[in-house]
Design goal:
The chain is mostly helical. Helices cover 64% and strands 0% of the residues.
């Protein structure tokens, strides 16, 4: 009985390395597949993803890190609840 095979998981850095190697086209995809022990279609998919998402590298970092627009009302609600909690602690009898 064969042990159950688990799926291999690759880090983002590894995927980027393989896709960049494929984009430079210094080696054929078959050689890259043998070197990294991957299939040619897998390398082609990562290469396509890199081409499609390369523009995101140059987006404005401030726009990416900006807080979502709906966060201020949440902070206000937390402040109200904390004040109500303190008021209830003062007014209600302790057991």
């Amino acid at each position: 009985m064969n042990p159950k095979r688990t799926r291999r998981r690759f880090t983002v850095e590894f995927k980027a390395e393989v896709a960049l190697a494929a984009l430079t086209e210094r080696q054929p995809l078959a050689e890259l597949a043998a070197r990294y022990q991957l299939s040619v279609p897998q390398i082609s998919r990562w290469k396509l993803q890199l081409r499609q998402q390369a523009a995101q590298v140059f987006t404005d970092a401030a726009a990416v890190l900006a807080a979502p627009p709906g966060i201020e009302p949440l902070y206000a609600a937390i402040g109200r609840m904390e004040m109500e909690n303190q008021l209830l602690k003062k007014t209600l009898p302790t057991w």
